[in-house]
Each structure stands twice: as structure tokens, then as C-alpha cells.
Amino acid sequence: MSLDPTLDVTVDGDVIFRFAVTNRGTEPVELTFRTGQYADVAVYDIETDAIVWQWSDGKMFTQSLERLPLSPGETFEREYTWCDPQSGDYVAIATLEADRDVEARVEVTI
Amino acid sequence: MSDGNITRRRVLRSVGSAGVAGVVGTQSVGAEGRGRPDRYIVGVERGQADLPAQAADEVYRRFDFDDIGEAVSGWFTEEALAGLRNNPNVRYIEENGTMQAHEQTTPYGIQITDADVAIDGGNTGDGVSVAIIDSGIDAQHETLAENLGEGWAAAAAACDSNCGGCRYGGDGSDISECLAEWDDDNEHGTHVAGTVGAADNGSGVLGVAPDVTLHAVKVLDCCGSGGYDDIAAGIEWSTDQGHDVQNMSLGADTGSDVVRDALQYAANRNVVIIGSAGNSGECTDCVGFPARDERVIAVSATDANDELASFSSTGPEVELAAPGVDTLSSIPRNDYAEFSGTSMSAPHVSGAAATVIAAGTTDRESVRSTLKESADDIGLPDNDQGAGRLNVADAVGTDSGDGETVSVVTRDATEVGEITATLNGEVTELDAADGTDVGFEYGESGGNLPNTVDAGTLSAIGAFDAAVDGLDSGVEYEFRAVATTKEASDTGGVQTFTTGDGGGTGDSRPAIDGFAVTDGSNPAWSRHTVDWSVSDDDGDLATVTSEQLAAGSVVDSVTSDVSGDAAEGTHELESKRTSADEVRVTVVDAAGNETSETRTV
Predict the structure, then answer these.
(1) Pair B60, B41: CB distance under 8 Å
(2) Domains in chain A: ranges and CATH
(3) Higher pLDDT, B341 or B470
(4) Helix, strand, coil in percent for chain B, rounding step 5
(5) Could you tell me if residue B171 is inside a domain?
């Protein structure tokens, strides 16, 4: 798999997740998205495994297909803000909502 | 903005022609883009015209420009073009284009639903208001501006010409300034609006109801998402304005109480509400929200051949089917593109609802039943097509004249052998005619369908077929169904099939010889490693798919391309927070024969 996912976290009161998927291969890759969701990020309590926050919660999306070509070296990027998180230890998992299973995870301590 | 340019390039590529502002491309040929290649023109040195003429499947025109050289236009296969490109006598090869300025195009969805027939009969939705609850509408589009009414935007979704929130990928339109807070910074809403009500003004595209008033209700941001509360507020605002129809080409898997409240508020005030079924297909019982709500008319998506779109969600809540594959419509600014999705099918129905209301049926449930009773049965299961595929002319009782009408669609080829195949078609509409002669045109892919085969005469709608032989083995063929009455005729879309390659009979089923599952699950993840080996007597293995199922639904799958008479491999399946209870392996050969095995885990 030539797609390289990364999930960067900035904690500054709010938590900002930056999910990036880069084509590290030598061939172009075409991603197909089924809706305007494109990607998602969910935060799990590391102790209880319960979801404490998910970006797509409470949202609806356009229902048209989009094919996104990623040339070698190009990056698909999304930024999500988790407002007013409670302190604790979490695991965040970001997923591409496309025809390829791509995800990145990172531990977050607030 | 470089981000936006990517999106724009995609859009331009999906339109048939570019280069002249406002030019609308020709309609695409096949529903999934599998039609004949476009015509090419090959320029050669003087006296060399026989070179491309012999390489062509069929020559359309020859040019002799004296000293300048000669040229041949016609239909060429990719192989023929590849050979010509390396020939020093070839000066240029270009794809044939059309040059037409500001001519109005009627998208196939308007034709197949007979909306054009309704329009010709004076049914244009005049005086009816349709709310486009979406990402906004281009405030000055050449084919929409004269039909625009009022607009409204939720603060979180208000137009943003910079659109930084979703960053790269799917970042909406690249408009340089917002002309109103409800201006479209995504493209989606403008596309939906064009299908409902693009004006019949000689430019761009024609909508289902070209005299409606379109209201932009902007609840989705430039990235294409919106909150439940903003969507509910948009429904409430539109209802308070007295809009007649609300189109919701949006959705999610989960429902929302506040949106349900808003839907009831709108229904109580006689608003006809239409929603897209969702793009989760192939799947069963998977209609998204709000479409699956009983107050909403859920619309699935079909293509130019009246077949279900592979992506369309289906289920008992589907009430109508409408075109939603490669739908041509408007995007900002004075531009046009083909989009696919149930987002594109719902607005066909919204336009039709407006047409019915304008014709005097105003009660929301009466509008709903009129649309369903007049729909064309296209032979799909009820959960796929609901009452059938939308027919606007029938919904308003437009007589298409005393003349005969016939509609035919092309179905997949069956019993494909090395030199034989059975071609299938179906007459879906036959009015005012005693009967229709039916048959097929066929030929090698990339050619001009030079052969015909007769399939007899039908006196009523129904399926028909014809066997053809004398084909070449291992070759891809194209065909389309043709129906002809005394006064009318119709052709279906182009379908393809590939004959067997002589490596065997082409009809033996592949076998699963080995299938072992290793369970590596933990509380958070269902993880299964599948070791498989497969074989096929006639040596045309095509794919192996491993699927993880939870309560009958596929939650993860991996597919590998395979070939020859034997293959083996390993697939890693994983799904988050599911209780996967079965693993299935399916092997398919090139002839479409498949074998499946399922293990409980």
C-alpha cells in the first residue's frame, strides 16, 4: 500500500487533529468517496474503550460520489477540532471514508 | 488556490468538451463510461492517407490539403492508434471535438423520465417553489439566475470563498468571492438545483421543471457536511416561507430527533419532502436518514439503461427510482459537470413534484401517490425501484401526441462462449403501436456496431433475446438493443461482453481448495486472517474476495486479482467495534462463474 497516513495532534485547550494521507508510491492513486464525509476521527477512552468524541456525530453529508486522484507525493488532508475535552488518556483513530481502508491512530493525554 | 484546481480539473475532465466558456459537452455514451471511443483524426504526410484509412475500424472522412498533407477521420481502436503514433508519416492524432457555442443540452435524465415531453406539453412547474436544502446555489449562474428566489444560510455553513476547513480534497468550488451567504462554495447544491429547475433559456442544461422558483437553503458547508441542528433550522425556515417542495440530497446512517421534528413541522404544512436514499450500495435495507423517514420520499439511483446504480442504497423505504449516474448539470460559475450519486436522483423527483403541483394537485400525499402511480416499472425489485422509475409526463397526464412511442433498454449478454453469445434487451414502454420489431446491433468494441440480428416482434412490453455466432474468441464486443415501430424507434445503451479465449470451455466453475481462518480479535477489533487457495479447470481465474460479516452485513472485504488455473494468498480482515460472526471467500472466473464458502467464526 503506497498510501501513508499520519495523524498529528495539537493540544491547546481544544484538541486539533490533522489527518494526512500521502501517496508515497510512484503511481497515481485514485480515491473514491461515496459522500461528503471523506474521513472521520473518533476518540476512545483508553481505560473503558468507550467513544468519547467523534467528528461525524450529529452531521449529515452530500450524497454524491467523488473521485480524487492523488499523484505521487500528493497529500489528502483534513483538520478536526475537539472542543473542551476533559482530561484523561485517549486513543484517537482517524479513518479515510473511501474505497481503501486507511487509518492512523495516536494516543492523546489531556 | 492550488487545492481548488485539482477539483476543477476533475470536473472539466468529466465534461465532454472544454475550451470555450459555457460550452456544454456531449452526453456520455455508456452509463459506466463503457461506450464506443470518440472519433479520432489522424494527420499524415502527403500521399500517406491509406495508412490511417487501413488502420481504422471505419473511415468517416478523408482530407487532402495539398502540400500541407492529408488527414483521415474515423473510429480507431487503441491498438491502431498506438501503432500510428510510432509512424514517422503521422503528423498528428487528435480526438474529434465539437465546437458549439452556448447551445442548450437536454441531459439524459430529463429524456428518460419524459420530463422533456411534459415541458413540451406546457408543464414547467411555473409558480411552484422548491427549496434546495444543500450547500447553496450559484447566485449568478446563466441557467439558474432567472429562477432564483430567496436564500438563507446557517451561520456554520455560510459561504466561504477560502474554504480552509476541509483543506485538501473535496474542498468544493473555487469561487473567488461569495455573492451571498447562500452562494455555493461546494458545487453540490448548484448541481442539484440545475436538475430540478435549470431554465429553458437556450444555454447550459434543461431542468425537470424549468419555470420553478429555486430557493437556496444553505445548511452544508464548503466541505459538504452540516449539523443536525442547522439542517433542522433550514427545513423550518423553508417551511415558514411557504415553499412547496424541499429537496434533501444529503444524509447519514443515523437518525436525528430534531430533524424528525422539523420534517413533521414541514409535513404538517403540506410540504412535499424528497430525500436521496444514500450511496451505501451494494447493500440491502440500508436507506439513510432522512430519506428513510416516512415523511420523506426516498429516491434510489438508476442509470441511462434503467439499471440500478451499483452505489445506490436500497430498502423498503425506497418509493421511486430516478437517474443518478453521470448526471449532467450546472456547477459554479457558468460551468457544467457530470456527477453521480443518489444526490442526483432526488432532484429529478423534486422537479417532478413541482410539475405535478403546478398542474393542480397540491396535497402532499396526493402528489406523492401521483408520482408513484405514474412511475415506469423497469423490472427491478421493489426495494430497488420502489413504485418504479420516475415518469414526469405520465405524472401530469401529458399525452406525447397521437404518435407511437417505444422505449428499449439493453441488458447484459448471457451464455457467452468462444464464438457465441445471447444478447438481451427489454422493451419498457410501448404506446399507441400494434407491435415493435426488436433486435440488436453489435460489433467489436471500438467499432461502429456494423452487424445486426433480428429478435422478432413484440406486441407488448417485455424481454427479448437473440443468439449470435461466428464471433472471434477472446474479443470484447459491444451491442445495443433496437426497437422499431411503424412510426417510432429507440435504441438502448451500449453493453459489452468478451468471448472466451479458447483456453477452455469457459464455463467451468472455479473451486475453493483451501480456506483457513485465524482469529486475532480483541474487544475493540474483529480481526481475521484468511488463507485461501483456489483453482479453475478452464484456467480463467479472475478475482478472490474475502469478506467479514456481522449479522449478515459485510463489514470489511479484500479483493485480489488472480489468473491462470490456480492461486493462493492471504487476506487480512479487520473491523472496528463489530461482532463479526462469519467470514466468506468468493472466487470468480472471467466468465463470471463464482463459488463461495462461508465459515462461522
Answers:
(1) no
(2) 3-109 (2.60.40.2360)
(3) B341
(4) 20, 35, 45
(5) no
User: In angstroms, what is the C-alpha Rg of chain B?
Assistant: 26
Q: How confident is the model at residue B577 (pLDDT cuts 50, 70, 90)?
A: confident
Strands B40-44 and B90-95: antiparallel
Contacts of residue B102, defined as CB under 8 A and 6 or more positions apart, other chains included, come to: B22, B23, B202, B203
How confident is the model over B515-538, as a mean pLDDT? 87
ipTM metric: 0.90
Chain B residues 414-443 with a CB less than 8 Å from chain A = none
- The CATH number assigned to the domain holding B63 equals 3.30.70.80
pTM to 2 decimals?
Answer: 0.64
Nearest CA in chain A to B324: A64
B12: pLDDT strictly greater than 70: no
Claim to verify: residue B123 and residue B270 sit in the same structural domain? yes
Kindly state whether residues B206 and B224 are assigned to the same domain: yes
Query: B343 an active-site residue?
Result: yes
Q: Which residue's C-alpha cell is 472544454?
A: B18
Whether the CB-CB separation of B196 and B147 falls below 8 Å is answered with: no
The helix, strand and coil proportions of chain A, stated in percent and rounded to the nearest 5, come to 0, 65, 35
B176 in a domain, yes or no? no
- Which chain B residues have a beta carbon less than 8 Å from that of A76? 168-169
B67 is catalytic: no
Contact B476, B445 (CB under 8 A): yes
Of A33, A38, A60, the CB nearest to B250: A60
All three cell numbers of B520, joined, read: 486475532
- Chain B's closest residue to A59, CA to CA, is B227
CB A39 within 8 A of CB A90: no
B330 located within any domain:
yes
Q: For residue B449, which phi and psi values (nearest 5 degrees)?
A: 50, 60
Residue of B141, B188, B191, B348 marked catalytic: B188
Amino acid code (one letter) for B372: K
Cell numbers for B312: 445506490
B chain contacts of residue A66, beta-carbon cutoff 8 Å = 10, 170
Helices (H), B49-136: 50-55, 78-85, 108-112, 115-120
> Does the pLDDT at position B508 exceed 50?
yes
Query: Rounded to an integer, what distance in angstroms lies between the CA atom of residue B79 and that of residue B84?
Result: 9
- Decide if B170 and A69 are in contact by the 8 Å CB cutoff: no
Residues with Cβ within 8 Å of residue B596, at least 6 apart in sequence:
B512, B584, B585, B586, B587
Instruction: Please name the residues in contact with B436: beta carbons below 8 A apart, sequence gap of 6 or more.
Output: B406, B427, B430, B457, B458, B483, B484, B485
B576–A contact, CB cutoff 8 A: yes
Spatial CA neighbour of B440 closest among B427, B448, B449, B452: B452
Return the residue matching grid coordinates 473451486: B511
Chain-chain contact of B223 with A36 (C-beta, under 8 angstroms): yes
Computed from CA positions of residues B290, B321, B202, B175, in that sequence, does the dihedral angle turn out positive or negative?
positive
3-state secondary structure labels for all residues of B510-544: CEEEEEEEEECCCCCEEEEEEEEEEECCCCEEEEE
8 A C-beta contact, residue A6 and residue A75: no
